[in-house]
Specification:
121 residues; 2 domains; mainly alpha
Length: 121
């Protein structure tokens, strides 16, 4: 009889723990990996940067070496411009995401105030 009671209690506890875990899992739905607010695809680095400069065959060719140095300089300037623009874009996205979070939190606070629900502590 004791074994039956222990078995029943164990099954009950296991079932209850599974239900709690499932309930928590449903509350925190993962973000959709395919979700985006971009109207178009973000430009690829390869589309924005010039071709990767190729070094000359020899250092003795002064004209080719000077052209290579100029090409590397132009490439690095274009890369820095892309990096700066991408950083600005990311910062704008973060600001807008934070504004959406604040707005959602305000809606929840208004909802809770309307129904006189106390915030969790």
């Amino acid at each position: 009889m004791k074994k039956m009671i222990c078995l029943a209690m164990s099954l009950f506890c296991l079932t209850a723990a599974t239900m709690v875990y499932a309930a928590e899992e449903q509350l925190t739905a993962p973000a959709d990996a395919a979700a985006t607010n971009f109207a178009a695809a973000y430009p690829a680095v390869k589309e924005k940067l010039p071709p990767v400069p190729a070094p000359p065959a020899s250092l003795t060719d002064a004209k080719a070496t000077a052209a290579y140095i100029a090409a590397v300089d132009a490439y690095l300037k274009a890369a820095q411009q892309f990096i700066d623009a991408a950083t600005n874009d990311a910062n704008l996205v973060i600001r807008e995401r934070n504004a959406a979070i604040e707005s959602a939190n305000q809606v929840v606070a208004n909802y809770n105030a309307f129904f006189k629900i106390e915030p969790k502590k």
